[in-house]
Amino acid sequence: MLETLEAQYADALEALAASDSSEALDAWQSAWLGRRGAITASLRATGQLPQETRAAWGKRANEIRQLLTHAQEEREEAICAAELLLDLESGFIDVTLPGRQRQAGGLHPSTRILREFARIWGEMGFQVYRSRDVETDEYNFQYLNFPPHHPARDMQDSFYTTTPGVILRTHTSPGQIRAMRDLGAGGTRPLRVILPGMCYRYEQITARSEVQFHQVEGLAVGRGIRMTDLKGTVAAFARRMFGENARVRYRASYFPFTEPSMEIDVECFLCDGAGCRVCKYSGWLEIAGSGMVHPTVLRNGGYDPSEWSGFAFGMGPERSAMLRHDIHDIRYFWGNDLRFLEQF
Ligand code: DAH
Questions:
Q1: pLDDT tens-place string over residues 134-175
Q2: Fewest CB within 10 A of the end CB: N or C in the chain?
Q3: Could you tell me if the CB of 173 is within 6 A of ligand 1?
Q4: 48 or 218: whose pLDDT is higher?
């Protein structure tokens, strides 16, 4: 009985070896393994066979179908390779055509600049502290020395949630309180952290202001930290970020959570201070708000301000990226336009 099957198998292999083109292979497939193919017919015949031979026949017929399927695949590969070679030789495939460019993903410009900030501050001994995006009014304002109903709150218009007193943070400064309470061990340990994160403000969206943007907050708390420490530290950062010759200047300012407070400018790196469109012909670019941590804020963080002091600063990475790459509209950052993103 089984000899019939073996003979069929041998014939099929022979026919396969003789198939030397894709068309011939297709024909072989329908003749042997297709719906009306010989092997398919033999398999189908299993049911009609007498009980004694049925099992052995079915088993072998199945094996043969698998072996042939495998042999067909191998043959197909060989034929494809041979046909490709023919195409190449006949000049049908033009190997001098340029290759197709592959699209590779890239990091978002904000991610890049955030990583650069974290690397530089990390080298200077500041660890990254992640604080929450959803804050309470206490942390976002009160503990930072914004008294209730004080007009300083209008500096930053908030997004409110449906839970009273719960808002989206308008700046990364509330993370100062959380870091002090979390890492300060009850006001007994010095601290050096940066707090990168997204901030949210209920504002008109324009080329210069978005409703969401990153900030990188910095905080150092210790015994005997003075304003000169802040100035030296920021100057060192500026040299690493903007180049060895970067000069920095400070302007008096006001923030409720620092006293004294100042605005930090870096000499315009596009025109080297000569004055250009980007620095609005002033020669200087604003890079951060900063100051000495207000005693009330230290106290709210668990430190005794008669023994401990600190400095803080807040930087805008999107602003830095805009200055560096001459980007004129902040809306590009969250617009998800590939033509913008692909440039980085
Ligand atoms: N939180 C301020 C803002 O959003 C930025 C800032 C200013 C942060 C001075 C500071 C600081 O830590 O000392 O505008």
A1: 999 999 999 999 988 877 677 678 999 999 999 999 999 999
A2: N
A3: yes
A4: 218
Distance CA 4, CA 139 (A): 87
Instruction: Please state, as a whole number, how many other Cβ atoms lie within 10 Å of the Cβ of residue 320.
Output: 23
What are the two backbone dihedrals, phi and then psi, of residue 284, each rounded to the nearest 5 degrees? -130, 150
Contact 326, 278 (CB under 8 A): yes
Cβ of 175 below 6 Å from ligand 1: no
Name the residue among 228, 229, 230, 217 with its Cα closest to residue 180: 217
Give residue 147's identity as a one-letter amino acid code: P
- Please enumerate in sequence order all residues whose Cβ is within 8 A of that of 203, keeping only pairs 6 or more positions apart, or say none: 157, 209, 210, 211
- Closest residue by Cα to residue 246 from 254, 237, 255, 258: 237
- 283, 268 in Cβ contact below 8 A? yes
Mutate to test the pocket of ligand 1, among 172, 230, 255, 261 (most ligand atoms within 8 A of CB): 255
Note if the pTM is more than 0.85: no
